[in-house]
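Moderator note: this is an archived Q&A kept for reference. The question asked for a predicted structure of one protein chain; the sequence and the answer are reproduced below.
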Amino acid sequence: MGGYHRGERAVQERAGFTRQAGQARGAVGNTVPDVAVAFLAQQPHLVAGATDERGRIWATQLTGEPGFLTVPGPHTLRIGTLPPPEDPLAPLLTGAGSGSGPVPVGLIGIEPATRRRMRMNGRAVRDGDGLRVELDQVISNCPKYIQKRDHHHPAEATPAPRKAVDSTELSPAQQRTLRTADTFFVATASDRGDTDASHRGGNPGFVQVLSPRLLRWPDYAGNAMFLTLGNLELNPAAGLFVPGWETGTSLHLTGSARTVWDEEEVARTPGAQRLVEFEITAVREVASASPLRWSAPAYSRFNPPTAA
């Protein structure tokens, strides 16, 4: 499992959180605690991030009936589903373990109704109708910036067909989706390919759409480990997943990201410790990607106000 890599250490030092990062390291293990086994067994979805065959990082959502996530051993997670063909990570994860071997993945189990989450990083191989992930890291996370939601299945007897649309920039409707988003997930990887997926949340408006190919969001106070920004220090590739909570539509973005440290720039965004700019190279929107629907959010009390 080891300690922090050099990108994480560089960001921790620049941010002035070296001591706090050392303390936070105690939240990282490589086994799944019993309480987490029970937590995962209750979840109907899981967020995953990985790097495709072209070197692009994507983040996505895997769904199933509660019980589709199991822990057959303390270092192993089994995911009892595969992404549908329209998913940007479907070719990679469907063939995981063949050819070049296991696929590095970053994972998040998140329960918006209770604001609980856990991160897991490891190496995935195809296992029948699902995936088996040998875990390198299991990370406890705080509930900050998670909007409370309850899930349900839609009332329609026949689900709408999935449909994927690809582009190289955001449409006006997709820009509106991002400007009103209160949650997204970001996947990154180190220069060695070790992959991580992380949650980002805030009040609507916390994601700024600077152009059809450029986003910016604040980096709020967190756990001081800087796993995402540390990866970006070594490898700018990143992928975003924006869930359509009410519609089941998935918005996937891939591109490159950089951390903005300029104090004057950062000061213009309430609550920001730093900023992250993300340049889009490809977009995939999948209609009816998820069978889950979610209630209106109760926003986290930790969310800073957004700029007027």
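Archived answer notes: The helical segments are 6-15, 18-24, 34-41, 90-94, 172-179, 227-234, 263-267.
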